């Protein structure tokens, strides 16, 4: 069985999130998704609209996803790859080159993002509408 892993915050779940999960699943038989915890997002300087518990439930409900784990630190990826016997590590191409060090543990794939949509864009649009 070919295992794939990816990570994300998945706040304000949108079609771009769904597309990357679908394409990641197409690279293997079993998809593991690490969802960034609220505490980890604070370290990254992010504030989510949806709690980590609820974001994990949303991602878990996606048919392409076989398992959801919490992402609590930058350095857990090697441990996750080894513990889950992962064959392919996937991230969006906005991270291209950032995880090449993981190539010694598994294949690393950077998938193109969905054009015209991002959580940041949604948040900015909502802020603009709130100020009108």
Automatic annotation (TrEMBL):
GO molecular-function terms, A-Z: glycerol-3-phosphate cytidylyltransferase activity; metal ion binding
GO BP term, pick one: teichoic acid biosynthetic process
Extent of the signal sequence: none
Keyword vocabulary terms for this entry: Nucleotidyltransferase, Transferase
Domain Cytidyltransferase-like: 5-123
GO cellular component: a single term: cytoplasm
Coiled-coil residues: none
NCBIfam families on file: cyt_tran_rel (TIGR00125), g3p_cytidyltrns (TIGR01518)
Name of the protein: Glycerol-3-phosphate cytidylyltransferase
Record lineage: Bacteria, Bacillati, Bacillota, Erysipelotrichia, Erysipelotrichales
